Amino acid sequence: MNQGKVGDDEYTYTIEKIYIKELKRNEVRFCVYKATRRGDETYIPRSLDVTELELIELIKESIKSKVFSEEFITMLKQEISKV
Q: What is the mean pLDDT of residues 18-32?
């Protein structure tokens, strides 16, 4: 699984590329994980709430980790250039 992540001592925020077997396609999932006393992380089923700076860092890490396809990155660049 490709995953870009940022976080602190308590929470880790991720953007993950996942494969959905039933649909036979890749999808992008935004997740929150909480650190446990054992030292690992557990998935928290809630919305991802981050600052704009945290979102930029998360997107940068996700691009480095190949979460997004080259096609998606090209489309994103085109949309940003229109602003």
A: 97
